[in-house]
Amino acid sequence: MYPEMTLKSGREAALLRGHPWVFSGAIAGIKGQPSDGDIVLAKDSRGQALALGFFNSRTDIAFRVLSRDCDKAIDAVFWNQRVQEALRLRQRLINTKTNAYRLINAEGDGLPGLIADVYHDTLVVSVTTAGMEKHKQSVVDALVFYLKPARIYEQSAGRSRGLEGLQDRKAFLYGDDRTGAVRVMENGYAFDVDFIDGQKTGFFLDQRVNREKLGAWSRDMTVLNCFCYTGAFSVYAAAGGAKKVVSLDISKSACAATSEHLRLNGFKSEIHPVIDADVFQYLRDLHEAFELIILDPPAFAKTKRDVSKASRGYKEINMQAMKHLA
Q1: Strand 169-175 relative to strand 39-43: parallel, antiparallel, unpaired?
Q2: Do 122 and 224 reside in the same domain of the chain?
Q3: Count of structural domains, the chain
Q4: What burial letters (b/e) apply to 103-132, b meaning 16+ CB within 10 Å?
Q5: Residues 212 and 302 placed together within one structural domain of the fold
Q6: What does pTM read for this prediction?
Q7: What is the distance between the alpha carbons of residues 35 and 154, in angstroms, rounded to a whole number?
Q8: pLDDT digit string (tens) for 184-235?
Q9: Could you give the CA distance from residue 25 to residue 263 in angstroms, rounded to a whole number?
Q10: Are residues 48 and 118 located together in one domain of the fold?
């Protein structure tokens, strides 16, 4: 028997439409004394059971749906089924040309607060909710059973964990504690992923389709890749037949990784130069036009008070880039 969370009259509508969250302002009362991260049963104002999910009193998102089957046991079988279904949906991505993909995408796979990325024989997980933190070992056990990875590394950091009352955590959860990059393949292109010190979980897997489109657009074009990070877009552009790809990043380590990825995939730095530079200043000083410009800057606004300054930054960087489109 789980603690019960009753909603205010009419506030069940979003849940009934399929929304995965309940906000704190929609709650009329709690029966029982759930701790943050515990599983509770959500009910409407008439006592009708709606869903089981994670509860957290600290956050605006007070409830995250786990199951709309209110009689479902949230046990090892449940976690196994969720992981198994996520893997089944990704089977078409697993082939000799691609061995890096997002296996679990939080609410999208019925596992709120969990991201799991596959990098060849390495799994990188990110846990962002107190509820998932409590059940992390059960999920790790399921991942080990179905995927049999060489290692699982947790890369859990960021503002969302703080809001949930959690500390940042980076640690191996399973297998050997190998450090250094893991070589992966995406559509036949090779990349070395630094899953410990890289951004996010090491590689921007969500940009795969955009990289594919860019490759198709790049033939015989001159391409400028701003904020190139480790150069995945640059590799796709070069592979797509671009006449020249110029890659920019202020990070020396990112530039080194981009150069290595171009070399690894058979492209010469003489044709596709990598430049360690501040993108804003580079564009201001640039006296050359490019037929295709990739402009994917980092987040300029981390909080609400940063929005005004960030907006000016985004406006300037886009205007500067558009001045240099051929």
Answers
A1: unpaired
A2: no
A3: 3
A4: bbbbeebbbbbbbbbbbeebbbbbbbbbbb
A5: yes
A6: 0.91
A7: 24
A8: 999 999 999 999 988 888 899 999 999 999 999 999 999 999 999 999 999 9
A9: 54
A10: no
